[in-house]
Specification:
Elements lengths: L8 H21 L6 H14 L5 H10 L1 H19 L2 H12 L4 H19 L1 H18 L4 H14 L9 H7 L6 H26 L23 H23 L4 H18 L5 H6 L4 H18 L2 H13 L3 H19 L1 H12 L7 H17 L9 H12 L6 H26 L1
Helix pairs in contact: 1-2, 1-14, 2-14, 3-14, 4-12, 5-6, 5-7, 6-7, 6-8, 7-8, 7-19, 8-10, 9-18, 10-18, 10-20, 11-12, 14-17, 15-16, 15-17, 16-17, 16-18, 16-20, 17-18, 18-20
C-alpha cells in the first residue's frame, strides 16, 4: 500500500484538492497542447496511483453514471446521422427561403432553427452543426457573417433547458437529482422562453445596422438539391418524429433518456446501412470520443474530492447563503453555477454541484428543487458569458477559425457581458416566481 494512505485526513484532503485544482487549471491552460480529456484522465490517474481514491470506488462512480455516457453517445450519433441525411442543410435552406429575402427575418429564423435543434438534439448539435451551415448560407447570400454566427452559439445555450435532453448537463444533474418532467417544465420552460426572448431582442438591437439589408435567395440551392439520399432523408424524418415524443414520454415516467437516444441512433444507423448512406466507420468518425475520457476523468476527480468532505461543506455553504428560502436557493444556485462554469467549464462545475447538492437533501422541497433547477439553469446559460464556459463554445471558435473568421475571447465577452447577466437574472427571477 502506498505511503499516502498513512497521511492524516487533513493532508489527504489537501492533496486531493490540489490535484483537482491542478486538473481544472490544466483544462483551462491545456499544457503541451493536451486536450481536455487527456488532462482530466491524467488527474484521475494520479489520484488512483497515489491511493487517494480506490479503483473500486472509481469504477463504481463510472458505472453509476452509465446514463450520462450513453446519452452522449446516442445524441452525438443521432445528430451525426441526421446531418448525413441532409436534414440540417435542408432546414437551413428552408429558413433562408422563408425569410422572404429579409436579413432581419433570416436572423430570426436562425434563432428559431437553433431553438429547434437545441431542444431535440442538444446545444452541442446547434453549435457544431448549425454554425457551418449558417456560415455557408450567409457567405453565399453576401450578408455580414458575425451576427448570424453569434446567434448560433448564444441560442445553443439559451434554449438548452427547454427539455431535459436539450443539454447533456441536464442529464448529468438529473441522473443524481431527479426531477419529474412536470417539475422540470414548471420551473424551467417559462424561464427558457423569457431568456430566448431577451436574447433575440438584445441581439436585434446590437446588430440592427448589419441586419438592415436584403439578399437574393436564388444564390442558394433548392431544398431538393441539398438532399443527397431522398429515401434516407424521409426515413430520418420519420424516426425523429417518433424519437421526439419518446423523449417527452420517457422524461415523464423518469425512464433513462439515454435508452431513447441510443435506440433512435440505432434506427438511423440501420437506415444508413440499408440505403448505403454511411458506414459504421464514417458514423464513428463523427463522434467526439474524447468527451467520454473528459467526463470519466472529471467524475473520478470530483468523487475523490467528495470523499474528503469538501463538497459537502460547499453544499452547506450554499444552503447557508440561501438562508433556507426558495428565493435564495434560486439566486445563489444560479450565481454559483454560472460563475463556476466560466472559471472551470460547465461539465466539471455540474459534476461538482452534483456532489454539493447531496448535502441539501434535508432542505424543504421548494429549496431543494430551486437549487437543482438553478444549477441546471446556471450551468446551461452561464457559458454565454465567456468562451471557456462550455466545450460547445470552444468548438464553435475552432469552426470559425478554420473558416478564417477570427473572434477573440474579448470580442465574445463584449457581447456576452451585455446580454448574459440580464438573461440570468430575468430567468432566475421567473423561476423563483414559479416555485
Amino acid at each position: 500500500m502506498l505511503w499516502f494512505f498513512h497521511l492524516p485526513q487533513l493532508w489527504t484532503a489537501l492533496l486531493s484538492s490540489l490535484i483537482a485544482l491542478a486538473t481544472l487549471a490544466g483544462i483551462m491552460i491545456r499544457p503541451f497542447r493536451w486536450n481536455e480529456a487527456r488532462v482530466a484522465m491524467s488527474g484521475a490517474g494520479l489520484l488512483l496511483v497515489l491511493g487517494l481514491i480506490s479503483p473500486k470506488d472509481a469504477l463504481f462512480t463510472l458505472l453509476r453514471d452509465w446514463n450520462t455516457f450513453l446519452f452522449f453517445l446516442g445524441m452525438m450519433a443521432l445528430s451525426a446521422l441526421a446531418e448525413t441525411a441532409g436534414l440540417f442543410d435542408w432546414l437551413g435552406v428552408q429558413a433562408a427561403r422563408l425569410a422572404g429575402e429579409s436579413a432581419r427575418r433570416l436572423f430570426l429564423n436562425v434563432f428559431l432553427l437553433g431553438t429547434f435543434i437545441s431542444m431535440l438534439f442538444s446545444n452541442d448539435a446547434t453549435a457544431l452543426i448549425l454554425t457551418p451551415i449558417v456560415y455557408v448560407l450567409v457567405t453565399k447570400l453576401r450578408l455580414p457573417a458575425l451576427p448570424y454566427l453569434f446567434a448560433c452559439t448564444f441560442i445553443a445555450d439559451s434554449a438548452s433547458f427547454l427539455l431535459p435532453v436539450s443539454n447533456p448537463i441536464n442529464i448529468i444533474i438529473l441522473s443524481h437529482h431527479p426531477l419529474k418532467l412536470s417539475a422540470f417544465l414548471r420551473l424551467l420552460l417559462l424561464p427558457s422562453v423569457v431568456v430566448i426572448a431577451i436574447n433575440v431582442g438584445v441581439f436585434f438591437f446590437l446588430y440592427r445596422r448589419q441586419l438592415a439589408g436584403s439578399f437574393d435567395v436564388e444564390r442558394l440551392s433548392s431544398p431538393r438539391e441539398v438532399i443527397k439520399h431522398k429515401a434516407f432523408f424521409r426515413y430520418t424524418c420519420c424516426v425523429l418524429a417518433v424519437v421526439a415524443p419518446a423523449y417527452v414520454a420517457a422524461a415523464a415516467v423518469q425512464f433513462p433518456l439515454s435508452v431513447v437516444a441510443v435506440a433512435g441512433a440505432l434506427l438511423l444507423l440501420a437506415g444508413a446501412f440499408y440505403w448505403r448512406s454511411a458506414s459504421l466507420r464514417q458514423a464513428g468518425k463523427a463522434i467526439s470520443w474524447s468527451i467520454f475520457g473528459f467526463i470519466a476523468g472529471m467524475f473520478i476527480v470530483v468523487r475523490a474530492v467528495h470523499e474528503t468532505g469538501l463538497t459537502t461543506k460547499f453544499g452547506n455553504l450554499l444552503l447557508h447563503l440561501s438562508r433556507g428560502s426558495s428565493f435564495g436557493a434560486v439566486m445563489v444556485g444560479t450565481a454559483g453555477a454560472a460563475l463556476g462554469t466560466n472559471l472551470i467549464n460547465n461539465v466539471p462545475m455540474a459534476v461538482l454541484m452534483n456532489s454539493a447538492l447531496a448535502s441539501i437533501q434535508s432542505a424543504s422541497p421548494g429549496v431543494r428543487q430551486g437549487f437543482i433547477a438553478a444549477t441546471m439553469f446556471g450551468c446551461d446559460l452561464g457559458p454565454n458569458l465567456t468562451t471557456v464556459g462550455s466545450l460547445a463554445t470552444v468548438l464553435w471558435l475552432l469552426i470559425l477559425r478554420h473558416r478564417n473568421v477570427d473572434v477573440s475571447g474579448l470580442d465574445y465577452f463584449k457581447v456576452g457581458v451585455v446580454v448574459t447577466p440580464l438573461m440570468l437574472f430575468a430567468g432566475a427571477f421567473t423561476m423563483w416566481l414559479l416555485i
